[in-house]
Structures are given as structure tokens and as C-alpha cells.
Write a structure and sequence with these properties.
This protein starts with a strand and ends with a strand. Strands 2, 4, 5, 6, 9, 10 and 11 form a seven-stranded mixed sheet that branches. It has a four-stranded antiparallel sheet with strand order 1-3-8-7, with no helix packed on it. By secondary structure, the protein is mainly β. It has strands at about 1-5, 10, 15-20, 30-35, 45-50, 55-60, 65-70, 75-80, 90-95, 110, 115-120.
Length: about 120
């Protein structure tokens, strides 16, 4: 199971840190990802990280502003979001991958958290 937290309402230019705690599987063996879905839009990839943390990647829209990290000792993945923009408003979900490598599409993940709302006001 995955439990995401840390969402909220923030002004443009502000920061939030999302956390996602995992249980039930050997967390350190699997890649993790963050996705988001805004109203009326499809779910989109935001960031991903390999099981060992040695590779990370981001959607172009968040590069330089968001940072994904993980603490395998705590079975937790994080998403630090800085310089937030109104267009970042969405429900953010974490996902546990099927393999160690990070994935970019939803079908490379088989376990999803419930999502946490992020709202950025202008």
C-alpha cells in the first residue's frame, strides 16, 4: 500500500513537499514515480526514480523546480516542489513500479496511492 501526504494550498512561487510511504513490498527493489491529474486532463508523469536512487527523471514542465528523492530505510519517496505555478494544480499520486528502473507511463506501475491535492493560487 502507498500513502501520500503533504498536499495543500500554496501561493504561486511557494513550495510543498509531498511524501509517499510504502508498505507490504520490498520497497528498495522497485522504481517509484509521481504522477498528477488536473481536472479535465489525463494523468501525466511528473517524476520518477530508480529503486537505488541512482537515476531520476522529470517531465519538462517541472525540471529545475521539482526534486524526487527516496529513503529506502524509511520506505518513503518524496517530491520537493519549488517555484510552484498555478498550472501545477492537480491531484498528485505516487506509484510503485514493477521493476527497479524508473518508468514514464502508467502501465509501468502496478500499485498506486490515493493521491493528494495540490492547489496553487495566483
Amino acid at each position: 500500500q502507498l500513502q501520500a501526504s503533504g498536499g495543500g494550498l500554496v501561493q504561486a512561487g511557494g513550495s510543498l513537499r509531498l511524501s509517499c510511504a510504502a508498505s507490504g513490498r520490498t520497497f528498495s527493489r522497485y522504481g517509484m514515480g509521481w504522477f498528477r491529474q488536473a481536472p479535465g486532463k489525463e494523468r501525466e508523469f511528473v517524476a520518477g526514480i530508480r529503486c537505488d536512487g541512482l537515476r531520476k527523471d522529470y517531465a519538462d514542465s517541472v525540471k529545475g523546480r521539482f526534486t524526487i528523492s527516496r529513503d529506502n530505510a524509511k520506505n518513503t519517496v518524496y517530491l520537493q516542489m519549488n517555484s510552484l505555478k498555478p498550472e501545477d494544480t492537480a491531484v498528485y499520486s505516487c506509484a510503485l513500479g514493477r521493476v527497479c528502473a524508473l518508468g514514464y507511463s502508467t502501465d509501468t506501475y502496478d500499485n498506486w496511492g490515493q493521491g493528494t491535492q495540490v492547489t496553487v493560487s495566483s
